[in-house]
Amino acid sequence: MNVEEIKNDLLKHVPGLELTVEGESFIVPKEKLLEAARFLKENEKYRMDYLSCVTGVDYLAQAARLGQPGQAAVGGQSELASGYLESVNHLYSMEKKHGPIVLKVRVPRSDPRMPSLVPLYRGAEYQEREAYDLLGIIYEGHPDLRRILMWDEFEGHPLRKDYVEEDQDIR
Amino acid sequence: MSDTAVHSQEPQLLEVSIGPQHPSTHGVFRMNVVLDGETIVKLKPVMGYLHRNHEQLAENMSYLASMPYTDRLDYICSMTNNFAYAMAVEKLAGIDVPERAQYIRVLMAELTRLINHTLLVGFLLNDLGAFFTPTLYAFREREKILDFFEATAGSRMMCNYFRFGGVKADLPAGGMEQVKEIVKNYSRFLDEFERLLTSNEILRSRCQNVGILSKELAVNASITGPILRASGVNYDIRKVDKYSIYDRFEFKVPLGKVGDVYDRYYVRILEMRESIKILQQLLKQMPEKGEILSAKGAAAAKSPRMWKPPAGDAYGRIESPKGELGFYLVSDGSPKPYRYHVRPPSFINITILEDMCLGQKVADAIVILGSVDIVLGEVDR
């Protein structure tokens, strides 16, 4: 299972998919995330039935411009040039015992909405809640998108790179 | 007084908040439970009481400075936490690990597995009402392993022992004898433990067919570790990834059939027996002398605040005693990680707590939570 092979299979089976390969990860547009994940989960060859790790990364504008892992796709999607949030999903197969296939989705910081993977993988439930809580990524279609680690009244998202601690002057 | 409540056909539901200061929640963890009589109809876990934004702390310090913080995730298994973090950084920076250090690492990881599973069985029996006899037996055995950890790493629980590309110090004089003694006596202790517990009628009637987790749901909900295997899914990262030197040892992956609390208990007992087998083979194979830190790793340890891995991202994972423990790191080429994420097994394993508890009695919820094996330092981070 090499990157080229997965890429070709994805392009063949998910119509209209625009795919960028970066190292060993695949960057898919948010509209096609569910379709791509469903293909990988249900296809006999891949059977990626296990969603291991779901998380997000906040790339500010400077980081997106500095030779960050992310530059290539930024060229294509101009609204991401001013910084973006990236959701990282590691898929493995428990049945075939291979993996990982890394699916990444990038959304602009001003409108951080992307589809939830919970309809396909229950395992995303708490992890997406955590990413919503700490990074402010809004997962559409999540059954219960609430804060999970911070308290409900908390404002802001502490893992964003421009987050300012309330009591920063006290130190 | 109105008598409508007595005669009404509506079920009288009762909301109970179990925790956060409850001895059976294994830490500051709360379950909001809705009861119909004694039967659970709804259960919502509430967590975050111990949250300290571990990930942001790590993003504001050098790579090596996070190592002691990983001890405090799952504070029972600091060695395996170190292991997973070191693996992720080694993958990120392409650092190799010398032979003897690999053996020491596996030695520590398997001893940690013994500690974790022994303690878990003790605590599970606490939850069942067998107060402290099994737990103290477990503590007695754990103490011997902790003595060895202390002699080697300088600390009993917060070991901070692994370094990128190796380990901090070589085994002390007499360390090997200590391990040999532990390995020699551990099966006898397990026999004793099992005589007390495995066929005990109370344990069986409280655990068998309680909190059944189906194979399909377990896979779909990303459950890992002994709970997954108790449901009959053969997935052990030591076998799948063959990381470190696990391909040099012969061991089986014990599987359950029913997926109930009893299977989770028994799979852990069997896993300990397999760990002892690994340790026996390890003691025979381990080279007497050798490097414990590779050259690249030594450079990283020498000036940690200046050390920079190349830009990129990496995900390193191991089979920790509780399941898949992974670290996802993004480097921007500076001395601090740009993104540092922990994939904690106990946090994800309680995703299906409600599914396992629905239709069970409230007393069973405590046992089911006990069998999941959570540590709140890791759940809340």
Structure description:
The complex is a heterodimer of chains A (171) and B (381). Chain A has 171 residues and is α/β, with parallel strands linked by helices. Chain A has helices at 3-13, 33-42, 61-65, 71-76, 124-135, and strands spanning 20-22, 25-27, 50-59, 84-92, 101-108, 113-115, 138-140. In chain A, the strands form two sheets. Chain A has a five-stranded mixed β-sheet. In chain A, strands 6-7 form a two-stranded parallel sheet. In chain A, a hairpin with a 2-residue loop joins strand 1 (20-22) and strand 2 (25-27). Chain A is globular, with a radius of gyration of 17 Å. Chain B is built from 17 helices and eight strands. In chain B, the strands form three sheets. In chain B, strands 1-2-3 form a three-stranded antiparallel β-sheet. A three-stranded antiparallel β-sheet of chain B has the order 6-7-8. In chain B, strands 4-5 form a two-stranded antiparallel sheet. In chain B, helix 7 runs antiparallel to helix 12 (261-285). At the A-B interface, strand 3 and helix 5 of A face helix 2, helix 9, strand 6, strand 7 and strand 8 of B.
